[in-house]
Amino acid sequence: MTEQRPLPEHRQGDLLERIQERYGTLRKSERIVADFLRNNAGKRLDSSITELGRTLGVSEATISRVSRALGYDGYPDMKLSLAEGTRNRSSIVNLPLEIDDSDSLISTSNKLASLLIAGLAGTQRMLDAHRLEQAVEALRAARKIVFVGVGGAAAICDEAAHVFMKAGFDATSYRDGYTQTIVASTLTAGDVMVGISHTGSTETVTDALLLAREKKATTIAITSNGDSDVGHAGDVVLTTWSADQQLVPLHGDFLEGRASQLFLIDLLYVGALFRNGDGPATALKTTGEALEKRYRKKRGGV
What we know:
This protein is an alpha/beta fold. The chain folds into two domains: 1-86, Arc Repressor Mutant, subunit A (Orthogonal Bundle); 124-290, Rossmann fold (3-Layer(aba) Sandwich). Helices cover 54% and strands 8% of the residues. The chain is built from 13 helices and five strands. The protein has helices spanning 15-22, 28-39, 49-56, 60-69, 75-84, 105-125, 129-140, 152-166, 177-186, 203-214, 229-232, 255-274, 279-298, and strands at 144-148, 171-174, 191-196, 218-223, 236-239. A five-stranded parallel beta sheet has the order 2-1-3-4-5, with helices on both faces. Helix 10 links the parallel strand 3 (191-196) and strand 4. The longest helix has 21 residues, at 105-125. The termini are far apart.
């Protein structure tokens, strides 16, 4: 038997990082292999390429393509990296597996930046032009805009309401199910409710969107899972990129998910500004002058 050569030092432990960087370029069948590798990182893989293909329902050629796409010489090389790559990785829930507790802060910063860039790029690639136009048009013409979310998504909703409000839109955000239900029940045709949920499993957001839709308001869902309850409750669904499914949906999530949500909010905001004539520009000038006057007064100026 030929002894497997060890990976060079700079290649050890980077399988998950490679998957993160290249996931968006993989075909559907290849993502099945990539998801398996991510979920089994740090474990010894004894299966032959034939056995693994049979288990996953993909061809040997697909597994070989994934190996090469990730930069390995072949399947045996990738198997070795699978076991070596995460030997001492942290088991902190929802901390990206690419980040190792033995990394220096500079190395961690580089990995975090790569994750954020990959998330934003993936979200941009997944944009549907028609859905985006529908969302922007609904927001541009809205009588009232309501953002709803809980946990980390609630912070995104607050930021969204803040920027739209400064541009002259009637925008608010709500983070508890009780208030979300009340507000949804008062909406009418011409109003818009935007629900944000990374997993798409947030019950209060789903219920609020469904009630708002029942009242003839337009509903927009922002989620990483368009086939989720929140996704189905949206008249328009905008999808954020996610490398894999969250294993613990309600125990926090990855930073790239939030960054992708902010990216979509900013995109919707800019689109609504450009489609609403001089109104937003005038409102931004007015609110800016009011804030400048307020803080100048606090500093003792005239």
